[in-house]
């Protein structure tokens, strides 16, 4: 199965989840996602998602100048973002429950 | 994909601070000598890659591109730092080469990266820009069709031999246009360099040189010289368009300065400025409310009343004054009758009243004007006008001199009458004396008559405090003026 297709559906929730507790800049968030196991996630996909979530008001952003290199754009979750995350979490859990039940039963039957 | 290596490295370095150390530590282990340049090389490559990505997003507009790729360089450097370390150690080559290779291999082609960014951000794919290009092509095709239709519509005219002859004429006179084009652009350059307004008439050798040079370049361009062949058509067309656009400005200035301005005014600009300044001055000096240029003005000050003396210097009452066009000369203009005036030598404010002619109409050009004191006026609801109260008669105003400081004793009586007759004027005046006007030598005669010490006899308002002495002395010197003088005294 092409996991990148699955990833697309949950990337919003995943990005919101990794900035839920701690603000982060673009690549920092990529790192967190990969560290949590989403190793196939593309950098650009994450940056694009960040921008879209920001446009939707789920994230705030602020620029932190760097003494040595280029400045970094940090993202933090908003109240609206937390609501979105809560809804998506619930939906995902319901969905995985349903699909898990559906696939799991078949899997078992196949074995 | 190097993600498995990545995860092991960067989980150790953690977030934020680990960029440089994450990159350099393994490098130091591999090739310590190249270490300092690595950061700079990385930065340069990241900048280049980010720029390429931005180019592929350019159709979204600068704001969106900025929004989408702000901080991209930093992210790329971070990602590279995580990625290159294991690669370099694995390959064991000079880091620059690896880094150069790595940007493309690690992130993929810039256009694919941009497409991913765009898709994840929920923005329309690049097809849009292709579509725009396509629409530009269709637009061009539509333009070509329109041009063709236009040409066909004019074909009845353009296919005639006369048109062909006209075209031939146009071709033959083109060199003149080349010169004119360069000359006009040169004139414009002169104003750009030296200020002022563009005129086709050069002022001085410098301007002439610039304009001649412009003409020369224009001709040479038209002949395909002094310009790369590929630029030639565009440059000449552009020069022509610029020249045509400049024609109105240049023609306007040339006309004002060299055609219309060829008179004592010497240049439109300075004349206009001087006129405006003079008018402002006049407005500033005006007493009370200024009514602009209406009325009679002397030395920048508005005149309220006129006093006329005959050749003997005796006052004349009820004189009708007209200008050379037969217009009534009015010191009090429309609406001015309801305006309170300060009158020299008399206290209070005064409302001037017109004479009433035999036909019943008001005549404002009969001097000296009489006036009603401020308290003698009342608002009439019937007429909606300010009018003297019943029983209040307008009073005569004090004369500036009981006898004019100038008189024309030798045949003065004779010369004053014909002077109103234009035909006799040239003969009478030169033969008389040089004293044509009282203004010329007021002091000389003023001593003789001893009426007034003021020298500037032309402007009554200027006399200031001398008036107090004028009124009493008037009875002694000029019996003819006594009636007016006595009439004033109660008011003052």
Automatic annotation (TrEMBL), chain A:
This is PadR family transcriptional regulator. It comes from the Bacteria. Gene3D superfamilies: Winged helix-like DNA-binding domain superfamily/Winged helix DNA-binding domain (1.10.10.10). Residues 15-86 form the Transcription regulator PadR N-terminal domain. InterPro entries: Metal_resp_DNA-bind_regulator, Tscrpt_reg_PadR_N, WH-like_DNA-bd_sf, WH_DNA-bd_sf. Pfam families: PadR.
From TrEMBL, chain B:
Residues 447-458 have a biased composition (Polar residues). Residues 1-25, 401-492 are annotated as: Disordered. Residues 430-446 have a biased composition (Basic and acidic residues). Residues 1-12, 409-429 have a biased composition (Low complexity). This is Uncharacterized protein.
């Amino acid at each position: 199965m092409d996991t990148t297709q699955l990833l697309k559906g949950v990337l919003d929730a995943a990005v919101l989840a990794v900035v839920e507790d701690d603000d982060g800049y673009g690549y920092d968030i990529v790192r967190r996602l990969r560290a949590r196991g989403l190793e196939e996630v593309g950098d650009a996909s994450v940056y694009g998602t960040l921008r879209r979530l920001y446009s939707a008001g789920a994230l705030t952003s602020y620029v932190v100048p760097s003494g040595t290199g280029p400045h970094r754009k940090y993202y933090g979750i908003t109240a609206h973002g937390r609501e979105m995350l809560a809804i998506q979490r619930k939906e995902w859990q319901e969905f995985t429950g349903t699909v898990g039940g559906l696939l799991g039963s078949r899997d078992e039957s196949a074995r | 994909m190097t993600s498995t290596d990545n995860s092991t490295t960067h989980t150790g370095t953690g977030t934020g601070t680990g960029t440089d150390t994450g990159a350099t530590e393994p490098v130091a282990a591999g090739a310590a000598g190249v270490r300092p340049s690595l950061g700079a090389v990385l930065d340069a490559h990241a900048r280049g890659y980010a720029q390429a990505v931005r180019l592929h997003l350019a159709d979204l507009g600068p704001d969106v591109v900025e929004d989408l790729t702000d901080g991209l360089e930093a992210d790329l450097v971070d990602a590279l730092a995580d990625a290159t370390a294991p690669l370099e150690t694995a390959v064991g080559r000079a880091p620059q080469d690896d880094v150069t290779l790595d940007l493309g291999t690690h992130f993929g082609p810039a256009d694919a990266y941009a497409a991913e960014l765009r898709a994840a951000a929920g923005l329309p794919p690049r097809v849009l820009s292709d579509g725009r290009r396509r629409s530009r092509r269709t637009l061009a095709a539509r333009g070509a069709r329109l041009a063709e239709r236009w040409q066909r519509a004019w074909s009845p005219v353009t296919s005639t031999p006369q048109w062909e002859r006209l075209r031939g004429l146009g071709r033959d006179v083109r060199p003149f246009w080349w010169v004119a084009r360069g000359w006009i652009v040169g004139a414009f350059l002169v104003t750009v360099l030296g200020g002022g307004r563009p005129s086709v008439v050069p002022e001085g050798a410098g301007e002439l040189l610039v304009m001649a040079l412009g003409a020369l370049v224009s001709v040479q361009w038209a002949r395909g010289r002094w310009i790369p062949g590929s630029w030639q058509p565009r440059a000449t067309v552009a020069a022509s368009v610029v020249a045509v656009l400049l024609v109105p400005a240049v023609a306007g200035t040339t006309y004002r300065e060299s055609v219309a301005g060829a008179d004592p005014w010497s240049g439109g600009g300075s004349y206009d400025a001087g006129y405006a300044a003079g008018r402002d001055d006049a407005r500033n000096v005006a007493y009370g409310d200024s009514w602009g240029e209406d009325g009679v003005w002397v030395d920048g000050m508005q005149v309220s009343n006129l006093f006329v003396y005959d050749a003997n210097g005796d006052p004349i009452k009820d004189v009708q004054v007209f200008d050379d066009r037969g217009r009534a000369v009015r010191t009090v203009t429309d609406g001015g009758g309801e305006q309170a005036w300060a009158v020299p030598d008399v206290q209070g404010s005064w409302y001037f009243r017109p004479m009433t002619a035999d036909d019943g109409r008001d005549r404002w050009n009969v001097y000296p004007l009489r006036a009603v004191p401020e308290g003698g006026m009342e608002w009439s609801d019937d007429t909606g006008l300010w009018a003297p109260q019943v029983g209040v008669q307008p009073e005569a105003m004090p004369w500036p001199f009981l006898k004019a400081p100038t008189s024309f004793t030798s045949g003065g009586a004779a010369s004053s009458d014909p002077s109103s007759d234009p035909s006799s004027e040239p003969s009478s005046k030169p033969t008389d004396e040089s004293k044509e006007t009282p203004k010329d030598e007021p002091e000389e005669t003023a001593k003789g008559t001893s009426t007034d010490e003021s020298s500037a006899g032309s402007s009554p308002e200027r006399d200031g405090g001398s008036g107090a002495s004028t009124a009493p002395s008037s009875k002694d010197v000029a019996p003819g003026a006594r009636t007016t003088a006595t009439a004033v005294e109660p008011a003052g």
